[in-house]
């Protein structure tokens, strides 16, 4: 296990998982619950947990090295697809997890930039991980305690105005993703966004993750169009 910050840990398993960047697994604990988590790495299979509710609190406080967990997956037919040329990864909060999984597969890391955003410095995640891969990083915080003061989309807009970008990959809160989609359409840039949704089954049966007639767990979680335009 790796402690990422005061309320986030990465769990590393002893198995490899044949999966594509953007896919997810359902993690289950007996007598508790089952929730979806993005893949941090596939070889070995690891996932990152931020404490946001009862289930994630149990994972982050009760699990110890050597404990057993149960999982299903990987799930998701919509995955990140590599695009030749300059690319930008835009991460908000835990959105860095699937983007880090993607970054490890990119052939040309020198032409890829990552924008990492958080509310404050102590909540930033994976900055050093991306840098170790050789990616140029841009940091933004809402309160200005690290990097640029403002939102990830402010930094993205500045780049799109001055550089020719082939594709923008995003993961994070819906308002951020919606703004990414709007900016990319305005600048005629392709984009791929990983959406979050309430998921119970993980493979399209329960319908709890339906958005505009699409199932995030089955058709996504990565989409090449914002749901309002599907």
From TrEMBL:
Domain of life: Bacteria
Protein name (record): FAD-binding FR-type domain-containing protein
Keywords from the named record: 2Fe-2S, Iron, Iron-sulfur, Metal-binding
One BP term from GO: pyrimidine nucleotide biosynthetic process
Keyword Protein transport part of the UniProt annotation: no
Binding site for [2Fe-2S] cluster: 201, 206, 209, 217
Originating organism: Candidatus Chisholmbacteria bacterium RIFCSPHIGHO2_01_FULL_48_12
Entries under InterPro entries matching the protein: Cyt_c3_hydrogenase_gsu (IPR012165), Dihydroorotate_DH_Fe-S-bd (IPR019480), FAD-bd_FR_type (IPR017927), FNR_nucleotide-bd (IPR039261), PyrK_electron_transfer (IPR050353), Riboflavin_synthase-like_b-brl (IPR017938)
NCBIfam families: PRK00054.1-1
A GO molecular function held by the record: 2 iron, 2 sulfur cluster binding
């Amino acid at each position: 296990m790796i402690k990422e910050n005061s309320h986030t840990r990465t769990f590393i398993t002893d198995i490899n998982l044949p999966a594509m960047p953007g896919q997810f697994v359902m993690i289950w604990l007996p007598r508790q619950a089952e929730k979806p988590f993005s893949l941090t790495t596939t070889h070995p299979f690891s996932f990152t947990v931020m404490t946001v509710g009862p289930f994630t609190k149990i994972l982050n406080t009760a699990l110890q090295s050597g404990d057993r967990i149960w999982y299903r997956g990987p799930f998701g037919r919509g995955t990140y697809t590599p695009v030749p040329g300059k690319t930008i990864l835009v991460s908000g909060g835990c959105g860095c997890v699937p983007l880090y999984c993607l970054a490890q597969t990119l052939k040309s890391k020198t032409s890829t930039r990552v924008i990492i955003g958080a509310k404050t410095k102590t909540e930033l995640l994976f900055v050093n991980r991306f840098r170790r891969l050789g990616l140029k990083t841009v940091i933004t915080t809402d309160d200005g305690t690290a990097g640029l003061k403002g939102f990830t989309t402010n930094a993205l807009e500045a780049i799109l105005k001055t550089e020719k970008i082939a594709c923008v990959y995003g993961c994070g809160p819906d308002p951020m993703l919606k703004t990414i989609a709007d900016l990319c359409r305005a600048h005629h840039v392709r984009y791929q966004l990983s959406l979050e949704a309430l998921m119970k089954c993980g493979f399209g049966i329960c319908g709890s993750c339906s958005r505009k007639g699409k199932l995030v767990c089955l058709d996504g979680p990565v989409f090449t169009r914002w749901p309002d335009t599907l």
